[in-house]
Amino acid sequence: METFFTKDKNFYKVFFRLMLVVALQNLVAYSVNMLDNMMLGSYDQNALSGAATVNQIFFVVNQLAIAIGNALIVMSSQYWGKKDTYAIRKLTGIVLIFSLLAAMIILVICSAFPEQLLGLFTTSPDIIMEGQTYLKILKWTFVLFLISNLLISMLRSVETVQISFVVSVISLIVNGGINYTLIFGHFGFPEMGIKGAAIGTLTARSLEFLIVLFYVAKIDKKVRVFDGGLLRGTFTAENRKLCRDFIKVSTPVILSGLVWAISIPMQTAILGHLSSDAIAANSVATTFFQYLKVIVVAIASASSVVIGKSIGQGDRNEVKAVGRTLSVIDISIGIILAIVLLILRKPLLSMYNLTEEATILADHLMIVMSVVMVGMSYQMPTNGGIIRGSGSIAYSMKVDLISTWAIVIPLSMFMAFVVKASPAIVVCCLNADQIFKCVPAFLKCNYGHWIKTMTNIS
Hints:
Blueprint: H1 9-43, H2 45-81, H3 85-112, H4 114-119, H5 125-157, H6 162-184, H7 194-219, H8 237-272, H9 276-313, H10 316-349, H11 356-389, H12 393-418, H13 423-430, H14 433-436, H15 438-447
Helix pairs in contact: 1-2, 1-6, 1-7, 1-9, 2-3, 2-5, 2-8, 2-9, 3-5, 3-8, 5-7, 6-7, 8-9, 8-12, 9-10, 9-11, 10-11, 11-12, 11-13, 11-15, 12-13
């Protein structure tokens, strides 16, 4: 008999283990960039804003990497349910080619048009100058991150997550030590400011990449991704079907992720053109919001893996029970995270050296974001984890496109540039999609048809 909650004890064991380790890994990984923000925030406000502006570009790269990784997880987790590791190896080779091409394009754009890119987010010459110094070094981390994230996603799809946490801890320690040394000029080293922060991040990302590559090549025993050559025979007749399948799955996932990712810097640009205090306040408030958001992202990632694995095992009633169980877990965690953000906002803001107006504005923005956190904690794991992970990829893409480009961007631009509303009101508009998306997520997950098999879609 079908039950509301799943009674499979192994589900709870696997899900919470995945969620916990991925959340810790995401928190530590996000801290690599947050360290730059915190140390630069106590060093100089223009340096902070310059790094925050470049991090908007990194955010697009990060979302591209996540989208590519999610597309791999959607298919690989179902193959993992069937224990077909050969297909996972071939999929990884295909996705690696996509990632390398994307990395090269991004690197060329950042090298050729740095000032124009930064000018999209701020009109301040001082912030643009600081940002260019930061981007000149940081752009190389984009390439490393795209490849290492792909390999971590492959490991995550087969329930191997501990290595990503270990790598992130090492990366954080290395970045923190170099930042402390080079930003402020300790231990006899020159005071380099924002350039020192960039060097620290590049060193940390390089080490992260090398460790992941070594683990996949020499230690992993589940997939053995380099057996037979990772790229050898990727586009032979034998693997063309697998390649077509991946393109069908990945296109809407990557398009949805990219379109949404592009909209986020646009949202930051809307605030950035209001005032210098607005961009600093938004940078601080968003930093802590993103810090908690990585937990939600971890829930979505773990949901995608367990849903895909369940579908691969073939029990549709159990898949539905797992979906309902995950929905209740999502909303419960969202309420907890919102309370945490509300309670900690004052102590966290005291760590920054901002103007009085920027501090007050950041406090107001964090209150708004605590409310947004509840809606996001339900809709993101449901849309991006349960529904997308089960194979209903086009539906998630449509929801993202409509909510972002038909609601958030037009409404925010109208309130910012026509009504001249306060930054707090503009931020409410910028995050309206997190509430709107809850409705289609609930309807699809409870009343729609969302279970699809991705391992035989050609």
